[in-house]
Structure formats: structure tokens, C-alpha cells
Amino acid sequence: MRYVIENEELKVEVDAFGAELKSLQDKKTGLDYMWCADPEYYKRTSPNLFPIVGSLKDKKYRYGGREYEMGQHGFVRDMEWSVSRQSGDEICFSVESNQETLEKYPFAFAIEIRYALVRRELKITWNISNRDTKKMYYSFGGHPCFTCPIHGETDKDGYGYHFHIDGDIRYYGIDLESGLKLPEEHVLKLKSGRAAFTPDFFTNGAYIITGNQTQKISLYDRSGEDYLTVSFDAPMVGLWSAEGKNAGYAAIEPWFGRCDDIDFDGTLEERAGGNILDAKESFSSTYTITV
Description:
Elements: E1 2-6, E2 10-15, E3 20-26, E4 48-49, E5 60-63, E6 66-69, E7 82-87, E8 90-96, H1 99-104, E9 109-118, E10 121-130, E11 136-138, E12 140-142, E13 145-147, E14 161-164, E15 169-174, E16 181-188, E17 194-197, E18 207-209, E19 216-220, E20 226-232, E21 236-240, E22 249-256, E23 275-277, E24 282-290
Antiparallel strand pairs: 1-2, 2-3, 4-12, 5-6, 7-8, 8-9, 9-10, 10-24, 11-23, 12-22, 13-22, 14-17, 14-19, 15-16, 18-21, 19-20, 20-24, 21-22
């Protein structure tokens, strides 16, 4: 079931399945900034990722002397969430562990995600609680996919994807077969912080940007004006679109965690970029989409 919040300028739709943001629409122009989830390229719009981000080595992890299996990006994106409260311009969804999740992830947890409109901003707040009696090891993140190019236009070189990051960026690539992080670090050279997504930009998959290098990434149109900005406090962010295709979307993904290294052979506690919550503790983080 989809739920709607709105203010004078923007209208938002969120599906209770996965608490997934499906639409962010300008009420004056009718323009929708979110990807339409065309299954030919990518069937989702903005999945929520927990308790892992990315892929595990061999789709498995070890904890407490036992081996567990888990698919890419965890499982809450495929759970039905409940609405815990709603007003005109704000809605909160919640989900918690159950017998089925405990078989895949042996921790008792509760998550609330709040969507709130403030003028031309959509603020998305995660609140994660460890309801267990032991430390909880976890990762989480957002995966919003945006219409890009926004008007279907291309620049003089035929490119329709453009992004804006302040300064050059160091990044890691992903092995397309396994979905795991490659060891080589690369530098993404930008001209005044701006660049086009060339046709081969995503040929090697996602860009993993670690180390708190940036807290803001924008998309801009052929006139050079930013039309959408994602701001976040996450230590990592991913850039992604369909590999080798002009699919019509770009994902800007704030992450607290990432996929395993391609040569990783450790336990859940040893996964790089993971987070820890002590028993009965909570953690909160917000990212903002500005249009």
C-alpha cells in the first residue's frame, strides 16, 4: 500500500513494502525526480538496506560459530512495514525482527524510518535500535535512484547524466561477477567538481567512495544548474546506474557500511565498514534530498 505526504510544493509517495520512497513530485510542474522502477533496468526506486550493504563473500557470513546466508543489501527492503504515525507532511514507518529474520540475522532489532517534507527538502531519518542483550553488528544505507537526465535532454556531446561533487574523489570499484569490492583505489578527476556520466562511466559497476570525502552530491542539467542534491552524514556513498546502459537513472547512496572485500575471509564482527550497537542502544542518521 502506498501512502502520500505533501506540502505546498512537493508531493511524496512511499510504499509500505520496504518503506520505499516511490515518488518525489513537484506539484507545480508535475515533474517526478524519482526513478520509475522500469524492470528492464532496475525494478526498485529507493530500497532501504539493512543489516548489510552490498554483497557478502559467497553470500554468507559467520557469527557465533555458525554460518548464515544472506542476499545482497539484506532483507528489510522485502518486508512489509507498519505506519507508526502520519501527518500532512510527515510519515513514519517501523519494522522489527521476528522469527524469520532471526534465522538469517541472530539479533533482535527495531527500525523506524521517518519521511518529512520541509519546503523543497525531503528529510529521511533512520532510527535503529538494538533490542538484544548482546552487541549488534550491522550496516545500513539508502539507495535512492533519481531520474537522470531530468528532462530527457543531452549536452552537446550527447551525454545526459551529470553530477557535481566538490573536489576530486578517490573510489573503489566492484567486481561485477561477485559484487565485491576490488582492492585498487582510483581517483575520479573532476573539472570544477563537475563531470558527465559518459556512456562507459558505469561499465565497471558502482563507485564506492569511502573515508568521509564528501557529504553532498548533486545532479545537474545541461545548463549547469543543480536540480537535485543529496546531503548526508554517512561516512561512505555509492554512485551507480545500470552497467554500460543509458538507463535514465542515477543512484546516490549514503552508506554506513559496504560490500565485502573480494579477498575477505573473516567473521561478521570483522567486516570492514560495519557498525556496532551495544545492547538496548539506538543510532539515528538523516539524509536529505533537495530539489
